[in-house]
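Justification of resources, computational component.

The compute hours requested in this renewal are based largely on the per-chain cost of generating structure records like the one below. Each record pairs the submitted sequence with a full structure-token output. That output is archived, and it is also reused by downstream analysis tasks.
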Amino acid sequence: MSAAAFDTHKYAKRLMDAGVTPAHADIQAETMGCMMAELAANTTALEKHELRNAAEIDVFGAKLDKAVAELSQKISETSQNSMRWTLSIGVAFGLIQTSALALILFKLV
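The structure output for this chain reads:
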């Protein structure tokens, strides 16, 4: 985070100009300076966590995309195999029916 540095002297001067005692103004300015530094540090840490989380989300997204692609391929292969079995069974039953009809015709003749 590139924020302007907090000017404690300027802040203390403004407090004194407003009627605050110099000792009180100095303590308040010092405390405010510490708070601003801590806020900047927390913001930087938060930004780092956000970047890390975004990177982890990208990794998990890539893994998910890969898993979806693999499952789609397996579903396609299974679908093709099911179709082959269905056609094979249909052809087999067709041949059985044709053979049965041929046997019936030969017995009748």
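The mean pLDDT is 90. Helices lie at 8-17, 22-108.
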